[in-house]
């Protein structure tokens, strides 16, 4: 994985732990207002594999609701 991928993944990991709506809204606005190249993103082999595995899970009906996921995440965070 290159440095940009590592940074992107670290940011995503941190974003997933934020629950403050005002903070998230400010981050969203910052990202929306930033200039982004229209270049295609080159996915790593690992990212492509994860997407393929996700597609297989969807086809097999291995899904949970956002509410169930949030509940599971909170339980996991309490255990830390």
UniProtKB/TrEMBL annotation:
Top-level taxon in the UniProt lineage: Bacteria
Name of the protein in its database record: Uncharacterized protein
Organism in which the protein naturally occurs: Flavobacterium aurantiibacter
